[in-house]
Amino acid sequence: MRERLLRWETVLVLAVVVVALVGGGDFLNGKNLFYLGLDIGEIALIALPLTLVIVAGEIDLSVASVLGLSSALIGTLWNAGLPLETILPIVVLVGALCGAVNGLLVTGLGLPSLAVTIGTLALYRGLALVLLGDTAVADFPSSYTQFGTTPVPGTDFPYPIVVFAVLAVAFGVLLHGSSFGRAVYAIGANTEAARFSGIRVKRTKLILFTLTGAVAALAGVVYTLRFSSARADNGTGLELAVVAAVLLGGVSIFGGKGSLGGVIAGVLLLGGLRNLLILDDVSTETLTIVTGLLLLVGVLAPPSAVRFARWRAGRTILKEATR
Amino acid sequence: MIRKLATVTALALLLAACGGTTKDSGAKPGGPSGTTGAANAQAELKTGLKFTYLPKAVNIPYFSVVGKGVEQAAGEVKGEYKATGPSDASAASQVTYINTAAQQRQDALLLAANDQNAVAPALKAARAQGMKVVTLDSDVAADARDLFINQVDSTEIAVKQVELISEAIGGTGEIALLSATANATNQNTWIAIMKEELAKPKYAGLKLVDTVYGNDEDQMSFQKTQGLLQAHPGLKGIIAPTTVGLAAAARYLSSSEYKGKVALTGLGTPNQLREYVNDGTVKSLALWEPAKLGYLATIAAASLISGRITGAEGEKFTAGSLGEYTIGKKAEVILGPPTVFTKDNIGQYNF
User: Fold this and answer.
1) CB distance B100–A284 less than 8 Å?
2) CA A128 → CA A94, A124, B74, distances in Å?
3) What is the distance between the alpha carbons of residues A187 and A199, in angstroms, rounded to a whole number?
4) By the CB < 8 Å criterion, does B220 face chain A?
5) In Å, how far is B79's CA from the nearest CA of chain A?
6) Does any CB of chain B come closer than 8 Å to the CB of residue A143?
7) In angstroms, rounded to a whole number, what is the distance separating the alpha carbons of residues A185 and A54?
């Protein structure tokens, strides 16, 4: 019980509750929660598959560029006269393909994912610019853009959050309730050991990168509809926000540790705090500093807590021995 | 794997043939929204109104000066003033702040938009809630705001800059443009007019060789200037129709071998450019007075809320010390002609 209370996820959930309580009525009303849901939509979506990638000891920094490419592709195909019903599966497919390219470069050539995805970060953004250039496509019918701007009838949930909820359950089962998920943890903890115990390391990683690409493209769809604006530079810099949220959620950048629940709490905490600070008219500079400090805490706290626990355990043993 | 992919792609394309909503199938919404009720020019200006000013990004000196005008006007009508905004001038970054203003039940939003489309859905939602939206400096889609306060007639400002660069380089040579973001509405309008102007016989000697975008970021604008001069060794002049771009370009030129050889003009504030005007890097620049822009937008917003105007073409209103203005087509109000700053007069301005 005590160990459970001290878990990082618990701390995060408590922090989210504190933010909500401090915010009070201005924060905890349907309209504001709807805006909050919209604001964190894309980050929350991408954080799901990225959690698995980072747990497996890899990283994908190209996600925001895949989002931009997806947005640019939507604009290009829409201009070409294709219906959105057709464009969306194509876009998700192209996203999966981008992810697969990352995965193949990492597994096939054995390159470090950090280097590969810094490369494809530029490459995919470049392709997006080739497709749509400096222009924006904005003449989408309101019957579609309302998916990104209005709540689900009768509730205060934006549509993207519904998509997120479905995917969160799916990824939760995949990571925490399947042999695939156990393989992901094993790979992240010790790749060599995982390989010797019969886990198909390369295939697992390839699947993870492909899933990440597909979800990033889906986030591109959400982004495009939300702003009714398909642009090649959509989501620039978003990869850092997503990686930050995943790390704050307690996932170890070295792999093998972390949970999806923690990441979701991390996304909510970052998004909620930002929303609350803006509501309270805190200056942009303060906002940036607070977010930065929070991330530092997020990265430093879990390993420090482990060390502290070890130190205490060590002292107890020492006491027992010297008694 | 490849066969699977091919099958899926083929399926997707088949779906395309089955129809659905396409670009051409739906009627597009457009045009300014209908205004309701009649204006009463004699109505009292309401007091205690809450104004939120949302610039393209915080910490851009030009927008800070616009904000001073908003603050002054808000004070004169005994209202509350608040400035807020994102730290980057990207297309989507303002949406959170628009939603927040609506959430905070502000009476009016004074907005300089980064992108005419990306903020439109949020603005429409905010207006549906009763908030008045007045854009200044950079407009949004006409059905997403009540009024647009244009700093200057687009043609006047574009033509003036072409005239200034032509004078500075003696009427002949290669010139280039250093703009802000590629989607900035005002920049693109001016650039289009400049191109028309350059096509005229009197500017036959001027050749526009490149247009680059510094995204209204100092470092990027600095580097783009550097890049322009390397890419075009014969370049004689640069027009930077953005305050951030002009200051960065001036800083680069003044410290490079091109100082005095490559002319620079554009839109900038006297305080930012004074040093470069005095050392000869920049011969002349143009700008409207930004505080007046903020002032006019705020009085216009107060007049809208008080029912003095509705936003219909031809309506007139008085903006304090600035005098009387008339609402033009598409609910647009023009502040006035630009001021040209040179070595002779730049000392008289402080903004």
Assistant:
1) no
2) 12, 6, 43
3) 8
4) no
5) 17
6) yes
7) 10
| pTM score, whole prediction | 0.82
pLDDT in tens, B302-343: 999 999 999 999 999 999 889 999 999 999 999 988 889 999
> A277 to chain B: nearest residue by CA?
B100
Please state, in angstroms and rounded to a whole number, the distance separating the CA atoms of residues A229 and B181.
Answer: 15
Residues of A in contact with B92 (CB under 8 A): 223, 227, 229, 234
Q: What is the mean pLDDT of residues B289-295?
A: 93
Q: How many CB pairs under 8 A join A and B?
A: 125
- Chain B contact for A227, CB < 8 A? yes
Report which residue type is found at A230.
A
Cα separation, A160 vs A297, in Å, equals: 29
Structure ipTM: 0.84
Integer Cα distance of A175 and A187 in angstroms:
13
Q: Which residues of A touch B213 (CB under 8 A)?
A: 134
Average confidence (pLDDT) over A270-293? 90
Distance CA B70, CA B302 (A): 11
Beta-strand ranges (E) seen in chain B are 50-54, 80-83, 108-111, 132-136, 147-150, 173-179, 206-213, 235-240, 263-266, 284-287, 316-318, 324-326, 332-334, 339-342
| CB pair distance less than 8 Å for A278 and B26 | no
B15/A86 touch (CB, cutoff 8 Å), yes or no: yes
Sequential DSSP letters for A21-41: HHHHHHHSSHHHHHHHHHHHH
Q: Strands, DSSP E only, in chain A?
A: none
Q: How does DSSP classify residue B283?
A: S
Distance CA A275, CA B190 (A): 36
Are residues A89 and B90, on separate chains, in Cβ contact within 8 Å? no
Per-position DSSP letters for A207-256, written without gaps between them: HHHHHHHHHHHHHHHHHHHHHT-B-TTTTTTHHHHHHHHHHHTT--TTSS
Judging contacts by C-beta atoms under 8 Å, the chain A residues touching residue B88 are 237
- Chain A hits for B24, Cβ within 8 Å: 81
- A282 touching chain B per CB within 8 A: no
Selecting from A86, A136, A236 the residue whose C-beta is nearest the C-beta of B183 gives A136
**Cα distances (angstroms) measured from residue A127 to each of A65, A122, B229, B269:** 9, 9, 26, 37
CB contact under 8 A, A234 and B82: no
Contact (Cβ atoms closer than 8 angstroms) between residue B271 and residue B61? yes
- The A residues from 245 to 274 touching B (CB cutoff 8 Å) are 274
Of all residues in chain B, the percent with pLDDT exceeding 70 is 91
| Cβ burial B263-277 (10 Å sphere, 16+ → b, else e) | bbbbbbbbebbbebb
Q: How far apart are alpha carbons A111 and A102 in whole angstroms?
A: 10
pLDDT at position B31, please? 43
Indicate if the pLDDT at residue B27 is higher than 50. Answer: no
What is the C-alpha to C-alpha distance for residues A212 and A191, in angstroms, rounded to an integer? 20
